[in-house]
């Protein structure tokens, strides 16, 4: 952590006293630390305690009267922003972008990566509002740590206890090292599902939510890669720092791939591309005319985009396909790997509703053309994204 600049936000929770110890650990590890406190936090620990350790003025609500925009200057300063402990109140405000104190305003204005470490009573933790707010933070690209189960200040054991400072320091270390290992790599990711228009109001599509592709984009960006995300009809928030290109149809996607693939080191083809499109797009809405009308649609094939780009692959470029299967999983994945000339296929069992389309969790088998094969546990799509990147990284020179 040598020379890293960390802004620590301390909010109103009894666990604030543990932030003092964390601060010592960070400084011992070579980091430079600045502290911002909410007024509620100052009732648990005094700013002087943090100031003495950090050897820097601690920002509180008392600083609003200072000349200059101290919160903006502090927001710009850090390489990482860590909220420790994060109260339910702070999490709610951060999830909605409320800036009503020195801490929330500085946090909102800070561009560098963010880590939120919740600590609260189990009732607050289990409240759906808190869980909803944390999901929102994660969707906004903010890292979060889960509280431990253990003895709470209330005098009983439950979930809500802040992880120990050593654990938090290790997570912070990981966030810094994470940013290094994909630096210089240009990563192109496709996500979502293409839509093939039938008439001005109808289209053919599929159930892909785009979550896996978006998690891959977020993870690759966090590892320092330069990431472009071609998004087909996804409503998720754009991961911070990722360049977004929106497409609708397979043909739009084909055009973008032709332009962007030559400047790509790693292509992750997570989008569900429609294999067929209506042979004609009717300019007016198709009418049913009579109650018992039948309609036969004529479809024509879209090109296999993955296969197309894989055949144009230059040495050093890595092409990764995805196989969404409901039966004969391994055989189908092996066939696609060979047929599409991909370097890896990520096999996904979409027949299982717990891990398929639109689910938050996933389980995949990563299969390499070089004979590599590994199955991940069932875990969050962000954890799966990390595993996929770790496997691909091993192929870099
Ligand atoms: N793919 C593609 N172009 C298509 C169809 C699929 O580039 N026209 C890509 C997908 O993005 C994915 C991989 O190929 O990375 C496998 O997609 P999938 O839909 O599972 O396979 P298909 O090739 O459509 O094969 P099948 O219909 O037999 O399952």
From TrEMBL:
Residues 187-397 are annotated as: Phosphopantothenate--cysteine ligase. Its EC number is 4.1.1.36, 6.3.2.5. Residues 4-174 form the Flavoprotein domain. The keyword Lipoprotein does not apply. In the C-terminal section; belongs to the PPC synthetase family. Catalyzes two sequential steps in the biosynthesis of coenzyme A. In the first step cysteine is conjugated to 4'-phosphopantothenate to form 4-phosphopantothenoylcysteine. In the second step the latter compound is decarboxylated to form 4'-phosphopantotheine. Pathway: Cofactor biosynthesis; coenzyme A biosynthesis; CoA from (R)-pantothenate: step 3/5; Cofactor biosynthesis; coenzyme A biosynthesis; CoA from (R)-pantothenate: step 2/5. CTP binds at residues 275, 285, 303-306, 322, 336, 340. InterPro entries: CoaB-like_sf (IPR035929), CoaBC (IPR005252), DNA/pantothenate-metab_flavo_C (IPR007085), Flavin_trans-like (IPR036551), Flavoprotein (IPR003382). Keywords: Decarboxylase, Flavoprotein, FMN, Ligase, Lyase, Magnesium, Metal-binding, Multifunctional enzyme. It catalyses: (R)-4'-phosphopantothenate + L-cysteine + CTP = N-[(R)-4-phosphopantothenoyl]-L-cysteine + CMP + diphosphate + H(+); N-[(R)-4-phosphopantothenoyl]-L-cysteine + H(+) = (R)-4'-phosphopantetheine + CO2. The keyword Nucleotide-binding does not apply. This is Coenzyme A biosynthesis bifunctional protein CoaBC. Coiled coil: none annotated. The gene is coaBC. Its cofactor is FMN; Mg(2+). One of its GO terms (molecular function) is FMN binding. Residues 1-186 are annotated as: Phosphopantothenoylcysteine decarboxylase. It comes from the Bacteria. Binds 1 FMN per subunit. GO terms for cellular component: phosphopantothenoylcysteine decarboxylase complex. GO terms for biological process: coenzyme A biosynthetic process; pantothenate catabolic process. Pfam families: DFP (PF04127), Flavoprotein (PF02441). SUPFAM superfamilies: CoaB-like, Homo-oligomeric flavin-containing Cys decarboxylases, HFCD. Residues 182-393 form the DNA/pantothenate metabolism flavoprotein C-terminal domain.
